[in-house]
Write a structure and sequence with these properties.
The protein is built from 5 helices and 16 strands. It is an alpha+beta fold. Strands 5, 6, 8, 9 and 10 form a 5-stranded antiparallel sheet that branches. The longest helix has 15 residues.
Length: 217
């Protein structure tokens, strides 16, 4: 019985990682955000007892991939960096990464990242103002829930609400915007007291998500 137990233990250790001075070491990994721009991020990878690191980037509400899915469908780190481009500014993503040594692998690591928008140009009158502006015309900007299409409010989408040109002259429409959202469809929660359809109030994670969306974080 003891012999069978020792054989089982040996097989288990052999499946965990490589042998180093008589001790089997499993692949290990640590990932951190190295740098980012308005449409790309670089992820620093520190791998141990591994032959390579693979990673993918996904929407935060997508299903978490397995280690094999990351290796087969992801990108391999070059120079200890995973680089992901083509991201939407201000939208949160999850980076999933895994280290491999042969057929053995580390646990899947997850890191939330946001492509940071570049600093906006400031109008001269904005630089000199010392308080909250008064406004005459305000419109509601509803966004954040995943069922909204289009999803983001970017400069091109705001423009028709700000002004229009008629006869070669620009006319102002709205100069103030009330940003709000009532529900988040992917979570089935409401940002208010529940109703018959949306009967679960948003938790802290959902509130942090909508704040990040509205503030462009």
């Amino acid at each position: 019985m003891r012999r069978i137990a020792w054989i089982a233990l040996f097989v288990f250790l052999a499946a965990c990682g490589r042998e180093d001075n008589g001790v089997f070491q499993a692949p290990a990994l640590e990932i951190t955000l190295a740098s980012g721009t308005e449409d790309a991020v670089e992820i620093a990878c520190e791998a141990y007892y591994a032959e390579g690191v693979w990673g993918v980037i996904k929407d935060i509400y997508d299903k978490e991939p397995s280690a094999s899915e990351i290796r087969s469908g992801g990108v391999k780190a070059e120079g200890n960096l995973l680089v992901f481009g083509g991201l939407l500014p201000g939208r949160p993503y999850y980076v999933y990464a895994v280290a491999y040594a042969g057929d053995r692998h580390s646990v899947v690591h997850r890191l939330q990242v946001v492509a940071e928008p570049s600093e906006p140009d400031i109008y001269p009158w904005e630089e000199s103002r010392g308080g909250v502006l008064q406004f005459a015309d305000l419109t509601i900007v509803a966004g954040g829930s995943r069922h909204k299409n289009p999803f983001l409010w970017d400069e091109a989408r705001f423009q028709p609400h700000v002004s229009f040109v008629d006869g070669g002259k620009e006319h102002w429409l709205f100069e103030a915007f009330l940003c709000c959202e009532g529900v988040e469809s992917s979570r089935n929660v409401t940002y208010s007291i529940g109703t018959d359809t949306w009967n679960t109030s948003a938790d802290r994670e959902a509130w942090e998500y909508i704040l990040d969306y509205l503030l462009g974080l």
